[in-house]
Amino acid sequence: MKMLRWSCGAIQSLIRLGMKVTEISKKMQEKRLKWYGHVVRREDEHINRRVLDMKVEGLRARDRPKMRWSDCVTEDMKGKNLDCTDLRGRRKWRKTDVDPT
Asked: What is the rounded distance in angstroms from the CA atom of residue 65 to the CA atom of residue 33?
């Protein structure tokens, strides 16, 4: 964003509209949801799907619980008003893409 602001000499919201650039966090959310939808639609015996459903034995550190990838996906789905039934309907799932305008 600093580079865009320097090259255009404008404020952040005008840069996003004029250059059609979105926030990096929104793009990361979009990519996470796309990958999750892709993995869930795979066959049950595929390695990605098995790892997604895998439970790890053992204890975590005593610190604050770390944010897991699945926790991020759950938050992203809540933010986009999606649920697990929407995974099979690819049209609605693909409409969750970030639109810079």
From this structure: 22
Sign, CA torsion 54/68/92/82: positive
Q: pLDDT of 10-69, one tens digit each?
A: 565 565 666 666 677 888 888 888 888 888 888 888 888 888 878 878 887 788 777 888
CB distance 90 to 84 below 8 Å: no
4 and 21 Cβ atoms separated by less than 8 Å? yes
Neighbours of 44 (CB within 10 A): 7
Give 79-95 as a DSSP string.
HTT--GGGGT-HHHHHT
Q: Are 18 and 8 in contact (CB under 8 A)?
A: yes
pLDDT confidence of residue 92: 65
- Residue 15 structure tokens: 């840069």
Tokens found for residue 72 = 């991020």
1 half-sphere exposure, CB direction, 13 A CA radius: 11
